[in-house]
Amino acid sequence: MSKPLLGDSLPARSHGRLATAYRRPHCSLLIHPPALSPSPLPSLLCKAALLYDCLDASTLFSTPAEKSCRSLMNITFVVNDDDKARHASLEKRFLSEAAEQGLVNLAGHRLVGGLRASLYNAMPLSGVEALVSFIDKFTRNVSR
Questions:
Q1: pLDDT tens across 56-65, in order?
Q2: Per-residue pLDDT tens for 106-122?
Q3: Using CA atoms, how far apart are residues 139 and 62, in angstroms rounded to an integer?
Q4: What is the dihedral of CA 125, 131, 134, 139, to 10 degrees?
Q5: CB 77: neighbour CB atoms within 10 A?
Q6: What is the SS3 assignment for 131?
Q7: Strand partners, 113
Q8: Has domain 41-143 been given CATH number 3.90.1150.10?
Q9: How far apart are CA 120 and CA 41, in angstroms?
Q10: For 109-133, b where at least 16 C-beta lie within 10 A, e where not — what string?
């Protein structure tokens, strides 16, 4: 009799026979075997680098997270302006104009504020490129 593809750690009877529990494989391995599905990491790194490079070069926006602690999934950024009223109005204007361009859900946490771009797998590279282009255009318009 041939051994099952995933070994004998999955059947519940294996767990009942022994005093110790088998370590079960993560369920995503059952759906997408690592050898058959490409890693999303290179795409995520590319998207994050593109947006962080734009924000690092920006005079209007900055990222509060230190470079060694930056998230690849949720990129937070804020408007650089010491005047609180101008800061709030620029943030609202950014969100409004971004929504007109189809760039939505960029508001940061409701208690912390700021802005946030989520780069999960569903976000295509073209979406990040559109956001970077919009940030550059917005910065030029505000700087006038």
A1: 999 999 999 9
A2: 999 877 789 999 998 88
A3: 12
A4: -120
A5: 24
A6: helix
A7: 109
A8: yes
A9: 11
A10: eeeeebbbbebeeebeeeebeebbe
